[in-house]
Amino acid sequence: MSPSLSDTPALSRRGLLKFSLGASAFLATAGLGASLSGCSSSIAASGFAALRSGDLLCLRALVPVMLDGAVPVERMPDAVEGTLKGLDYSLDHLSPEMLKLTRQLFDVLGMAVTRGPLTGIWGSWENASGDEIRHFLDRWENSSLSLLRMGHSSLLQLVMMAWYGRKESWAHCGYPGPPTV
């Protein structure tokens, strides 16, 4: 039986505050560095309205793992590209502030200086295995830091809304489609 979070020794309040302050400073510095160095450009990738090239590298690794079991292996490449197009459409219609926050999440996932420590993916996304990505997703989902749990929730919701908004996904979940009018 594995210990639950409440059975493991907890940080003291002071320790948690120090850790949180350090993590916040680290993320703020990394974000500022990315924006000053041009890593965080707002130029969309070719063929996309909102998703940038760096975002696509991350998402092309994440989406197949997140859709595993919902899509047959032979249809996965088309499902990934369709999901990315749907996600791009949704992001293009977000408020500027929400788009900014989403891009900050993608920046954290895209920069090596933050990706390694926060996700456990030390190399590029293209070289990450499905198990490494599942471990990263589990790590964020069950993190004691609410910021990482929110990041997981945001990623999951963005990808799932883009996937299940597509007609090809409906049969898997038993949805017959909208009624004809």
Automatic annotation (TrEMBL):
Name under which the protein is recorded: Uncharacterized protein
Organism: Pseudomonas moorei
